[in-house]
Amino acid sequence: MPLPSIKAQTAVDFEGVVYYRTRSILLLAPSLVIGPGDKTHKRNSIRLLLGGRGPVQLDFENADAVSGRALLVAADSGLCSIDGPLADVALLDYAPASAEYAALDNYLGGRSVVQLDAELFADLLPQCRAGQDGSMSCDQVLTLLQTAVFRITGTEIPPLEYDPRIVKALQMIEELPLADISLEVLSKAVNLSPDRFRHLFKETTACTVSQYARQTALWRALNLITQQDYTITAASHALGFHDVSHFYRVYSDMFGISLSERSNPRKFKRVRCFS
Prior knowledge:
The protein is α+β, with helices and mostly antiparallel strands. It has helices at residues 99-108, 125-130, 138-153, 164-175, 183-189, 194-205, 209-227, 232-238, 244-255; strands at 9-10, 17-21, 24-29, 32-34, 46-51, 56-60, 66-68, 70-73, 79-84, 89-94, 113-115, 257-258, 270-274. Strands 11-8-5-10-3-2-13 form a seven-stranded mixed sheet. The longest helix is centred in the last third of the chain and has 19 residues, at 209-227. The radius of gyration is 18 Å and the shape is globular.
């Protein structure tokens, strides 16, 4: 049975659906145009862009434009615009601190963008097109995200192996309200100096403590909203955001999308959130 949805407004030009999972996003749209300066480009994630009906063009801050029907883009590529009008675009977004991100980062090997053979994903494209109506289940989204990584790397996704002290810190972030999480609290809990803990955490997760904590609190809040019928106000309070405005800012900064009930209906898209 489909999960409840949140209506959202986006600064980008498309009509489609966004599926959110912890540490990953699947965006499906008949057309996708994201211009320079959009907050979406600030996400520190690896992205796979697929054009089901035609090529997608990517522009970069300090490199030549690249066009293709299957493009893998590094987190630090300087991506500044995506142009895929009428291309049946699938954007698969893998955030740091995920096994998929680690596997793709290893495959990229320092390259900013890799043009892939679109035939690798030929059987996935009909699923993407059908999923533009918001009907995909959690299992279908997870399978698609993981299958795409396997097609690129040719190997099963290895589990992440973290320093036990980082594992403990991550568990604390999953359990504590956002307002109670700080570098000092976490470093003391794992018996490391703040400087040493900061370095180890960033080296392991590719995020600062504050970035990871905000992302985690946001995922937890979205799960409360979509799966337990919390209001945005109640979820924001439960997870330790300062107020609803703080929740909105973190959401916008993370996804490049502003939650609104007063937006142009043409800009609405269905949003599914899975844990």
